[in-house]
Amino acid sequence: MNGILLVEDDQEIAKHLTVLLGAEGFSVIHAATRREAVALTEERSFDLALVDISLPDGSGFALYTAIKAAGDVPVIFLTASDDEASVVTGLNMGADDYITKPFRPRELIARIQGALRKSGQTPGAFKIGSLQVDTAKGIVQRDGQDVFLSALEYRLLLVFINAPTSIITRDRLLDEVWDAAGEFVNDNTLTVYIKRLREKIEDNPREPQIIVTLRGMGYRLGNGHASK
Length: 228
Description:
alpha/beta, Rossmann fold, Arc Repressor Mutant, subunit A, four-stranded antiparallel β-sheet, 8 helices, elongated, Stage 0 sporulation protein A homolog, OmpR/PhoB-type_DNA-bd, phosphorelay response regulator activity, phosphoprotein
């Protein structure tokens, strides 16, 4: 389980993010101030830090230096401002990414997962039954044979791999993939795309074991997880 240091002085936002990240399988430790965050980095290690730029006792930029001194972990800045100077400052310091509030939860999760993959904290190769997925190379194989997926089919598959223990609702899938093919995806066409994906990755599409349907709830990855 990846550990995330969340540095955010707004208690409501922090509570919401802690629940969101916890549902995605992350372990979250919250600090409301720069001082609390520095103390935490001296006590334990983290896999990634989410840092608000504006803190009550100093800027997130100063905290960035302390976090990097304690361990070379990815840092994503959270900011309520879209001021270009702040963004450039953070990126020039070496921050892995930034995201402007208010942000879509799924976008934040995707950015966290991307930063973890780049840092080597999250495996780039997965195996689910007879299916092998190398996200670093964008290669999908079944029983050692290449499987050719469309952009939307591949994104659908990544949604499940990136949330291996979660139940994925149809609304969430629509939110994640609607623009992957450069066209609008509605509920009916989503059913078609899931059917096509299953035909390519499942040993028996009529009895899917990789993308499992939970009636009335959504879908989940077969057996609840993907292994490295």
